Structure prediction request, 301 residues.
Amino acid sequence: MLIGSAAVAVAGAGVPGGAFASGRGGMSLRWLGVAGWELLVGGRRVLIDPYLSRLPVFDGEGRFIPDHPLTVREDLVDRHLAERPELVLATHGHYDHLLEIPHVVAKHGSRVIGTETHRHLLTAQGVPGDDVIVASGGEHLDFHGFTVQVLRSLHSQFGSYGYFAPGTLTAPPPSPPATISDLVEGGSLAYQVSAGGFSVLFLSGTANYVEREIAGLRPDVLVLGMSGHANVYDYTARALRATRPKLLVPSHHDDMVTQLDDPALPPRGNPAAAAELAETARRIGLAARVLDPELLRWYEL
Ligand SMILES: [Zn+2]
Prediction:
């Protein structure tokens, strides 16, 4: 669903079941749920924070279970991510971002971009170190057909101005990560993927960013994390003013736990996220459209 001036998504050509956002960018985008995205750039495939397993990390009383074991829903990953991604971009080390990357790499031999800590977490789970490109933010990498700019970023800051499982590693952990607490944040990164004069900025894994890192980027599309930003000053408006995108897409705006094969799973995330993007754009006078994506549906950008 598009909110704003062009309000209708229509069936698109080129991507099975796809819909157009504008159809002019030559890229296609699919939301995998939580903060997971799949981007097609001229037939080449990039994943960002794939997380289809949606671990049930809350008990019957709604309390968070910090020692919930790490288990991958390989059936869902294999079904929905059957095509080989060339590259997997990790925004940070938390379980809902990093968990499935070892499975994807083992199956497809994809390259990963992440921080030194993310590399240590991944090699402890069997990912060959050479498959992980270590970045710290500031890199502008040429994949010859598309480029990836890596941007220094920040994790969301919750009620106490902190977050679950902070930490960094300077060596692989002594034993492989076993619970969700073992996958520490390890620094946060954002990414801009560009090709043919069109770009998509993924501030998608957290609800925070470094304003001076993103100022002036002018992406065509901004995918913005939209939960947990109550304590980040003027979060949405600052991101939109700094980057002035043409299309806004919410990220990390679902319940994170309802299984992908549960009929009770709503087809879209929390509608408040798209509404906040549309309202903020209107308030600051930014002529941007909002795409409130359906889960697992392709959109031609
Ligand atoms: Zn996180």
